[in-house]
Task: structure prediction
Amino acid sequence: MIRLNKYIADLGICSRRKADELIAAGEVKLNGDVVTDLGTKVDPSVDVVTVQNQTYEPRTMNSELFYIALNKPIDVISSASNEQGESVLDLITSENYYKPKFKDDFNKLEGIRLYPVGRLDKDSEGLILLTNDGELTNELTHPRYEHEKEYEVTIDKKLTQDARKLLTKGMLIEGEHYGGMNIVKEWNQGKRVILTLILKEGKNRHIRKMLGGLGYNISVLKRIRIGKLKLGTLSIGRWKFVKKLDII
Result:
């Protein structure tokens, strides 16, 4: 028997913390009955769990965990649903596998529910991780773990000293504090300037709001690293399997 929130996380649905929120809100059923007790335990080999009207039979529980790196194109949304447009999950196909001669590797994912770890704006590109490991998702997205995410950002002009200080220290935007970033590198490319930035927390449109608030226009925002995992030479729209030890 294991805690219900851990079982939900193991299914890859969400983190334990988010699972507790869903349980408390009455969004989870155990064998057809709504449960709100956070201490509820389940038997994965017997019990049927329903999360937000999606039912998970005992036989669908797969102990194998998968980790996928994808180079997300612009205009693709970082969501498990494609109701609002093409989703990153729509790109996980045999045709988009980075090794064309090994397309059969895609068959390993049959019946596996993958979820994107965190978000990458629709108008941004680069590395995004997909997995069915809810615990890893929680660790990579919770600010207290301070896992680094690295970006290359193209702006329209050189940073001033004042702007650099504010970006490094952090800013208050619309009453909310946005943590500072580490500016690793800045170089000119024609009339534009490219920055390499590292964040240890990532709020919605974090980089865009901070730079935009200081009067900088972003033409390209690309994530190139999550934890230890680098985008490398992975082509836009392509994906590959990676190992957990390559990530954290």
